[in-house]
Write a structure and sequence with these properties.
Two copies of one chain form a homodimer. By secondary structure, chain A is α+β, with helices and mostly antiparallel strands. In chain A, the strands form two sheets. In chain A, strands 3-8-4-5-6-7 form a six-stranded antiparallel beta sheet. In chain A, strands 1-2 form a two-stranded antiparallel ribbon. In chain A, a hairpin with a 3-residue loop joins β1 and β2. In chain A, α1 packs across α2 and α4 packs across α5. The longest helix of chain A is centred in the middle third of the chain and has 23 residues. The radius of gyration of chain A is 19 Å and the shape is globular. Chain A starts with a helix and ends with a strand. At the A-B interface, α5 and α6 of A face α5 and α6 of B. Chain B binds a DNA duplex through α3.
DNA sequence: TTTGTATTTTAGCATTCGCTAAAAATTTAA
DNA sequence: TTAAATTTTTAGCGAATGCTAAAATACAAA
């Protein structure tokens, strides 16, 4: 009764696109999965037939509640695994994504429950991404990027994008880690660099691209 | 460069057959993998073409040294995982096999090394099966079954067959666990029951089928 | 040594999941 | 509003991996 890895990857990708406010078009999905758009069209048909999503030709896909539930389950696996790898197995936060990406499809319910227990039912992974609960409730996600945050207001770093190991290593080095207090000191126009002040640290200057991948929450 | 799960399963099955002294014939492999013999013939051709084994039609398969190495790697994954699941994650020994069976194909080198370290580079899994070393050396395996062991001689339980959860739960209940001292007190002819004496316990009577799945080593 | 049985292989087919190239539909822009 | 550009779908193909049924081979027994 298990779904293929491929199917799970599609559902997850579509979920993530939707939750970023984007429409899950053929091209979007193809880019996310690094697959041709023809392949996506094909798969969307199959998934629609399986009632995991609705697909109107040329209009993109929307997950059904079943599809949604499965996507959340995979995401839960992924994020629990990331945290487990970091906290229990001593991985660094730039290494956890790739390992979790493979394992998320192959652990049992029992394994999932076990690591959730060992980690004390955590709500967020090492990058600040929220971990859906067992019954499919997604905790709030930090959406306010540094680039868009207000000047001279106290925030806490809530989340950083987890895809790029290089970036993660850099952010860790300069102390940009979820949970840390932060204030935006200065912005420059035309998407220029942004000066920030971290707790107990001197100021740092971030490029706009970096600043767009770090998200804050109110204190 | 990764091999498919299917290929890894074939190599592992062939390795296990060979190490049990059996010839890896089409039928043997088909039974081990619960797959039709036609499918096996097919796969053997592919694997031969990949230089993972030699296959003479109608004569069975022999792993090449490359094939052997891969089989050992998978077996190492499997057995390390079994032990990890039991020791670190609190699985019972009848639960570990199935979970390990899936995960063995999907963990990275790093993961393998990490659990080996956390477990202090163990040599045997919870069922007493030897764990191949990283460079492909297989520790000795207990081959003397209770059914064939001598009377009134001190042994230690070295290994139990790990396939049958029912059996494992039963064995654990009566105290037949690797590491435990044991003596054969009485055998009955025609494959009848066997009376054993465990350390600190009263005697137990085992059916012949059970006695054939428990293996001993000298003290 | 022939014949019956068991094993193995061959042939042909199905599914999953990717691809490319061409056609169709949609969107954008002149 | 029509032409150009972009996106999506269709058509057809290919590898991996399974299957069944039929043919070939090997083994065992009479």
């Amino acid at each position: 009764m298990g779904l293929s890895q491929s199917i799970e990857d599609y559902l997850k990708a579509i979920f993530v696109l939707q939750s970023e406010g984007e429409v899950a078009t053929t091209t979007n999905i193809a880019n996310a999965l690094k697959v041709s758009s023809a392949s996506v069209t094909n798969m969307l048909k199959r998934l629609a037939k399986m009632n995991l999503l609705e697909h109107e030709a040329y209009k993109g896909a929307k997950l059904t509640s079943t599809g949604n539930k499965i996507a959340l389950e995979i995401l839960r696996h992924h994020r629990l695994l990331e945290l487990y790898l970091k906290e229990v197995m001593g991985y660094s936060w730039d290494e956890v994504h790739d390992e979790a990406e493979k394992l998320e499809h192959h652990i049992s319910e029992q394994f999932e429950e076990r690591i959730a227990e060992l980690l004390n039912h955590p709500t967020h992974d090492p990058h600040g991404d929220p971990i859906p609960t067992k019954d499919g409730v997604m905790p709030a996600i930090a959406r306010l990027s540094i680039a868009k945050a207000e000047l001279n207001k106290p925030y806490i770093i809530g989340r950083v994008k987890d895809q790029n190991s290089e970036l993660l290593r850099y952010l860790e080095k300069i102390g940009v880690i979820p949970g840390v207090k932060i204030e935006i000191v200065e912005k420059t126009p035309f998407s220029g660099p942004i000066k920030i002040l971290l707790e107990d640290k001197e100021t740092q200057v971030l490029g706009h691209a970096v600043a767009s991948e770090v998200y804050l929450v109110d204190t």
